[in-house]
Amino acid sequence: MLLPLYALLVIADCVAAFNPSGSYAPANVSCPEDASFVRPASGISESETEWLKKRHAITDVYLAEFLDRADLEDFDAQAFLELLNRSINVGLAFSGGGYRAMLNGAGQISALDNRTAGADSHGLGGLLQASTYLAGLSGGNWLTGTLALNNWTSVEEIISGDTIWDLEHSIINSGGINIFSTAPRWDDISDAIQDKQDAGFNTSLTDIWGRALSYQFFGEEDDGGVSLTFSGIAQFEPFPNAEMPFPFSVAVGRAPHTRIINLNSTVFEFNPFELGSWDPSLYSFTELRYMGSDVSNGEPTSDICVQGYDNGGFVLGTSSSLFNQFLLQLNTTSLTGIVYDLIHSFLTNLDEDSDDVAIYHPNPFLDTSYAALQTIVESEYLFLVDGGEDYQNIPFAPLLQPERDVDVIFAFDNSADTDDNFPNGTSLSATYDRQFGSQGNGTSFPYVPSMDTIIAYNLTEKPLFLGCNASNLTDLGTIPPLVVYIPNIAYTTWSNTSTFKMSYDNDERDAIIQNGFEAATRYNLTIDENWHKCVACAIIHREQERNNITQSDECAECFQEYCWNGEQYTGDEKVLARSLNYTSSSNHEVSSISAAGADGSTSTASTSSQSTSSSHNAAVSFGPSYSAGFIAVAVAPMIGLMF
Ligand SMILES: *[C@@H]1O[C@H](CO)[C@@H](O)[C@H](O)[C@H]1NC(C)=O
Ligand SMILES: *[C@@H]1O[C@H](CO)[C@@H](O)[C@H](O)[C@H]1NC(C)=O
Ligand SMILES: *[C@@H]1O[C@H](CO)[C@@H](O)[C@H](O)[C@H]1NC(C)=O
Ligand SMILES: *[C@@H]1O[C@H](CO)[C@@H](O)[C@H](O)[C@H]1NC(C)=O
Ligand SMILES: *[C@@H]1O[C@H](CO)[C@@H](O)[C@H](O)[C@H]1NC(C)=O
Ligand SMILES: *[C@@H]1O[C@H](CO)[C@@H](O)[C@H](O)[C@H]1NC(C)=O
Ligand SMILES: *[C@@H]1O[C@H](CO)[C@@H](O)[C@H](O)[C@H]1NC(C)=O
Ligand SMILES: *[C@@H]1O[C@H](CO)[C@@H](O)[C@H](O)[C@H]1NC(C)=O
Ligand SMILES: *[C@@H]1O[C@H](CO)[C@@H](O)[C@H](O)[C@H]1NC(C)=O
Ligand SMILES: *[C@@H]1O[C@H](CO)[C@@H](O)[C@H](O)[C@H]1NC(C)=O
Ligand SMILES: *[C@@H]1O[C@H](CO)[C@@H](O)[C@H](O)[C@H]1NC(C)=O
Ligand SMILES: *[C@@H]1O[C@H](CO)[C@@H](O)[C@H](O)[C@H]1NC(C)=O
């Protein structure tokens, strides 16, 4: 069907959150006059700048309330904030790690959300409303993307309803076809992919993966958000009203025909306005809404441009493309259409180098002039992969850009680094190291304890503050934000499920979400009743330093308790990752917590059985265990075990 262009434009104006085609196929629209979609990454976009003014008017109010509630000694929140000639920027980052990361992250974010019952009285309620930025990666991005693309819904609203996050049925079942129990779903997915191909666009496994995920995140309406776009976030009321933080989805660039990913790779951010990278290897941003248009140096090559390419599920699938390869386990005999064709061609070509790739074609950065390296800008294709594949499993990059001027980052780490799927801070080291390489480009990250130190000194048993003392950071490019690292800790349920556990019944799901709340709040402020005060101390700290305001004794005590003191473990003894679990942990009331855990569906027994296969889990955990040959060596046997 060919609609006249003006008709498409009218549709585009009415429902701009959605693809004007109303389907998965990108749509032709007239190009804006004098269009030039690419700009250098020399600063934040005008759109972001304008938006921030509105957001800051709101975060200032919520931050004052949050600080008031913390009731710090010798501290008048209102007077303090008025004294500053800027707004404090709080950034939140949610790590990857499949549904484990999504669910733990959900509990953690709900602890900061003043819409959650109990968050104000025994949590960090209001901090989400006081935050400027929100970054998600892979599984963490399933969380942040679900919230942002569902009109800024809340975790509590999601789990009290029954339209999304029904994880009971795995997207892929062992040996079987099925998806969430209805085979026709695959036909819909197949049709969507076919629509995109018919419109003349390349597709990859990531398209299928993104479509499949979308039914869990966007529900049945609009056929699983088939026409919902990531740039469409900007059209839901809470965004233009600046009632939500500015969301990022993080992915990594992969050079054509390579599989190796290291700290030289290009880190990309999707935000509601743009896609691009601050790294010198690209140093450009393009207008997200017009991706899919044929361009050269950011300028359209004809009058016809494209919209609707940036499908929401496709972006979430891109950030989590490592999971694509599960599709190769589908029993193709029971599949039909384009899904069958695509999966079959991957299976028969054994094209391992690209089965985790999201293809973006045409490349919006073709022939642009701001990049220090030619690799990306001379390719017809832009290849993006899972945001965790460069070992930086916590999406710090967008929050570390000096242009964004972030004061404090709350980093929620739900990675599976240790044998039993807890984090060990590996991704902190990766981000720390990156600042000194050719892609660092003026970003800074505080000094970090080594992985051995983290394990040997039990630093993941509670939150950890990094970069507490700016005067010790002057050797770095710039003074980085203070980092509040909050690891996954098991309090009332086994929150260390495998990255590749693909189905959760509602009890399991809700138990992990509850545990996430507890991990973010020091067990609902029972382990440390001053935790929310300490968080307040962390938030105001950089501005106190800038203004030569001496920290109160109360805050100094908090810093004594939570800041890393710089000591590294130097013992010769090999540090073995210990199983952290709430029955063996001694810093809180074990019996009552165990009792609480007993209500949940997960038992110690089930966790032990999970530990049995843990050596496999470790080999494929998100983070530095990636390597070339990863699929063949580690994942293939893994998939056999999991499904
Ligand atoms: C969109 O425009 C391109 C030319 O730029 C054309 O090849 C294609 O058929 C058009 N698609 C639709 C659906 O009109
Ligand atoms: C969240 O905080 C705002 C500002 O104080 C308040 O208006 C709103 O009622 C709070 N929401 C809930 C659910 O408590
Ligand atoms: C901690 O607080 C959350 C949110 O109010 C609640 O759901 C959970 O049951 C509490 N945990 C315990 C152990 O009381
Ligand atoms: C989105 O949420 C806002 C409240 O934040 C509400 O006023 C609006 O009607 C919602 N829009 C849609 C499309 O649900
Ligand atoms: C694949 O599906 C077909 C038809 O549904 C079934 O007969 C066959 O046993 C399945 N194969 C495997 C390996 O599960
Ligand atoms: C990263 O890039 C720099 C400069 O281009 C180069 O010297 C270095 O060898 C690269 N490192 C890796 C691990 O590829
Ligand atoms: C930390 O995690 C990484 C994998 O993410 C692993 O290679 C390393 O051995 C772990 N170290 C310790 C001490 O647990
Ligand atoms: C960052 O990279 C760009 C592009 O290579 C360069 O122009 C700029 O000077 C760099 N900034 C810093 C602070 O190194
Ligand atoms: C770490 O925790 C273990 C188990 O609780 C304990 O035996 C050990 O002494 C702790 N190490 C340090 C340095 O606190
Ligand atoms: C803070 O103190 C330092 C050194 O004592 C001084 O250079 C700086 O100007 C002071 N800053 C403010 C904002 O007073
Ligand atoms: C202080 O700086 C030194 C480098 O000058 C670094 O090795 C150390 O880890 C830093 N301490 C902290 C607590 O960050
Ligand atoms: C948890 O700790 C208890 C007591 O130390 C131990 O018996 C159990 O094996 C541990 N569980 C795991 C999964 O490590």
UniProtKB/TrEMBL annotation:
GO function terms (MF aspect): phosphatidylcholine lysophospholipase activity; phospholipase A2 activity
Keyword Acetylation in record: no
Gene3D superfamilies: Cytosolic phospholipase A2 catalytic domain
Lineage: Eukaryota, Fungi, Dikarya, Ascomycota, Saccharomycotina
UniProt EC number: 3.1.1.5
CDD domains (UniProt xref): cPLA2_Fungal_PLB
Keywords, alphabetical: Glycoprotein, Hydrolase, Lipid degradation, Lipid metabolism, Signal
PANTHER family (UniProt xref): CYTOSOLIC PHOSPHOLIPASE A2, LYSOPHOSPHOLIPASE 1-RELATED
Region Disordered, annotated ranges: 593-614
Family annotation (Pfam families): PLA2_B
Family: Belongs to the lysophospholipase family.
GO cellular component: cytosol; endoplasmic reticulum; extracellular region; plasma membrane
Signal sequence segment: 1-17
Protein name: Lysophospholipase
Catalytic activity of the protein: a 1-acyl-sn-glycero-3-phosphocholine + H2O = sn-glycerol 3-phosphocholine + a fatty acid + H(+)
Main EC class the enzyme belongs to: hydrolase
Ranges where the PLA2c domain occurs: 30-569
GO terms classed as biological process: glycerophospholipid catabolic process
Record's keyword annotation contains Cell membrane: no
